[in-house]
What we know:
This protein is about 35% helix and about 25% strand. The chain has 13 helices and 22 strands.
Amino acid sequence: MALSQSFHLVSLGCAKNTVDSESMAQLMLGAGYQSTAQPNDAEILIVNTCGFIGPAKEESYQVLTELAAGKQTGQWLIAAGCLSQRYGKEVIDRVPGIDGLLGTRRWMDVLELVGKLRAQTHPEPLYHLPENAHTVGRDEGNVLRVARQGPSAYIKIADGCRRPCAFCAIPLIKGTLVSRPIESILTEARALQHLGVREINLIAQDSTDWGHDLGIREGTAQLLEALVEAVPEIPWIRVLYNFPGSVTDRQIEVMAQHKQLIPYLDMPLQHAHPATLRRMRRPANVEWVHRTLEKMRHAMPDLALRSTFIVGYPGETEEEFETLLDFIEEIRFDRIGAFTFSFEPGTTSEPLGDPLPQEVKDERKDRLMTLQQKISLEKNQALVGETLDVLIEGHGEVEDSGDPIAVGRSYRDAPEIDGLVFVEGQPPVGEIVPVHITGALPYDLSGEVRTLQPIVILNDIPIAS
């Protein structure tokens, strides 16, 4: 028997989806529902789906199908998020057990949809997919647009995207850019500071476009300056998803001036050959990338660079792919994410088709990641003997010996997508501790907490004891 007034929520996809899921959960909890990790104990089953690329869509369908197959009398299954927004009735047709659809643009109406489902005697699937993109990202009462994960948290500063990238379905799913008011963002940051959060990650489809629709110039730089002043007790503030061509000199200057703004740049470049970039409808001025990264590395010598690339885009020749490899070799990113091209109907790349065989895409991705693994290992090995501040996120034991160990991240590692630092002993979770790096793998580091040696005075000469 399903438990009355309870819900089970599964969040799929990116951190931006996680924020939407947390916001829906806040609304449900505020209305008196209880959250349960067991689907069999829940009256309301919610899957916040991802519909960005093919593999993500299939994962969403798989989770929905499993929950639909296990539904009990008195349970309701809602498919929320990107998959529902984009494909609508097709989702219902593929998973007949779904009772309602809730799109990305009105996540805040989850209680309204739940109420309608519970009120129906012989329900047909209910659709809640308004087309008004201007509702994206707007605030809903006292709901925080954040997702907290231990000592770290995400704040969504905008939703939607106005960029014309040919391969991307985000504008079809999310609509155009809608920036959240700066007052709301600062209020949420202060609330997180009060809760003891040590790291804030600012997220959006394009964080460097924040404020454009509000008429704010240099919006990202202004937001960062305001955050530094608003939450002086949060030591790490990270900006994710910077669009090529939009990282301004002022943003670089602001990041370099404030220690809280960690020297980390995530800029999804997608490719490095101008012809490929033009087919992608992406910024094709690769020289700008070189100049901007040079400026940033000059202003922040310890800058950690992350980017994302697509291989196997329609028309990508071996020469174009080799240009991408040469670019990666030259720039020497700290981290890279690579994806094979996923054909998405409805995007402006649809007329190009999907001409490259999957085996060609896979082989190119393997070559790219093999090159990057070598670069990442060399960069990590160069850190052996150095001391890095590490945010401790959890405790465990070494598998073979049972010795205590802590897991954390340095500023070089964004949550969930980058590497980890394994630290001997069990320093407190939520603390940022200095760690002497003693070992390096391609993506992870290991070390021990560096203890400050006491100073003694001998014949008026200070020495370490």
